What does this fold into?
Amino acid sequence: MKLNINILRRITPRWVVFLIDVSICLVSLILAYYLRFNFIIPSKERDSLAMVVVLVLSVRMLSFYIGKTYAGMVRYTGTKDIIRIFIVLFIGSAVLMVTNIIYLELYDKYLIPTSIIIIDFFITTFILSFSRLLLKNIYLEFNSPRRESDNVLIYGSGELALITKKTVDNDSKSDYRVVGFIDHHNKLKGSKIDGVSVYHLKDLKKILDEKKVSVVIISEKGMPISRKNYVIDTCLDRDVEVKTIPYLTSLLSDSFSLSQLKNIRIEDLLERPEIKMDKDGIRKNHLNKTVLITGAAGSIGSELVRQIIRFLPSKVLLLDIAESPLYDIELEIRENFKFNNIEIIIGDVRNKDLINYIFEKYKPDFVYHAAAYKHVPMMENHPNEAVKTNVKGTKVVAEAAIKYKTRKFVMVSTDKAVNPTNVMGASKRIAEIVVQSLSKTSETQFVTTRFGNVLGSNGSVIPRFRKQIEAGGPVTVTDPEITRYFMTIPEACQLVLEAGNMGEGGEVFIFDMGKPVKIINLAKKMISLSGLKPGKDIQISITGLRPGEKLYEELLANKENTLPTYHPQIMIAKLKEYDADEVLPEINMLIENAIEKNDNFELVKKMKEIVPEFISKNSVYEVLDTN
It folds into this structure.
């Protein structure tokens, strides 16, 4: 049975609610008299009762009219409505008290016993509040499909969990019904929150089965990743959907609804504890300074922009060759972050005249060099472009930084520069050599940061898997044994800023990337998180390693050592040092070959001479390693 809302409105207009409230006041007053006099009202009180009824109802009617207590929709009664009723009745009772005192002065007796006014106030408050809440619950019971509902378990026991539960209860369009809370604290086991039992985490499997749970909502912020993975894996094994609450700001606003609940994403399972940054030091170094970010429209470059503007530089220069993405990040920074001290520059880092013009005009204090070609198979087919952008581009910007006395130059490198097996990784290693060599003879502090794959970045496997799943599959994995290190984009950029802040020149910083992830397991979990079954709903196809691709990424070459820093997630790599007078002429020759010739094999051969540990894998250039 379902009550028709339009009929409900027609038969209960505001004046009807008003009359019902007044009737409740009459009943409450009579009940107060009976309670006060043990259900035998003295004759002298009965004589004045008619006058008392007229006075009390008049005061109540006037206060209801002024306070608009009848105007609220009963089926949506909330805390504010109950508080309004309390205040209106309290003021009305206070008016009756004052009237009683005046009557005493005039006639030397009370019109209404003071105790009657007090008892009447409490009875009226209780009945008006209880009746509204009762009608609200009846309405929700008949107008929500709870008879065929999905059982929901909420992880957490704090304020957010309670808000989530109330949101589920108050959403008449929802087919959810909260059947319990799950928490890892032993002391809460067996207790109740808002009438619903709290269960211990160790009983999760049993509760999911016994309660026939369809959805688990994670309401705890800052939940340890190991615990979150356990909850999610347990749920996925039982085909239970997992959702998370929105940000705290959304939860504490009146606009929070179940439609804002988010599905768990693979990024949520690979994130790590919040990185501790020396924010004061970074702010001190960047405050009122000019910062140039190359590759500012890319995934890393754009996030660097977002983070750096929080430290209030005087100007941030956004340099990129990609027009549309650069326009997008400009709009985001101006509109969402309200930061207007930015300069948009469309240009190529390989253009020496343009780069010198930029440095001469703006004289940046800091350079974050994120511009690079990063796609392994593409660069394997176009080594000349890899050299021109990754090597020449880095050299052009670095030399301009020296010429115009830039304070610090921070280069974003990659783990693929370690024992490179492809052209892209080798080109980034040569770019590292350029930066290291120049740092020895310049006042500019050159710092290199090296890390692995970032989640959601351009060319990352995760966006590709997501598109393949949305298209119905198959999901393509190059090899069942292939593993990669992963880091979120914000995390990587925070470490870049922290390493850049601590660097004094010449260091190559490597980041703690955590444990490597097997890509096929990543694919399976992404399919499961989408509510599908790997191998049944979505197939996984093994395509074979791509040109230049290796099974396992390394963060350090075998002969490299590391030194700790004050930051537990940042280490200094001890690399082979190069003499600038010896290596830079070789690199200049490499760049000239890339520009003037179109012989890929000759170019790659020269790269292998500069980087002897560059051994090609799954590539046509493997023949160069056997000669």
Q: What stands out?
A: Residues 333 and 339 are 6 Å apart (CA to CA). Residues 1-11 have pLDDT under 50 and may be disordered.
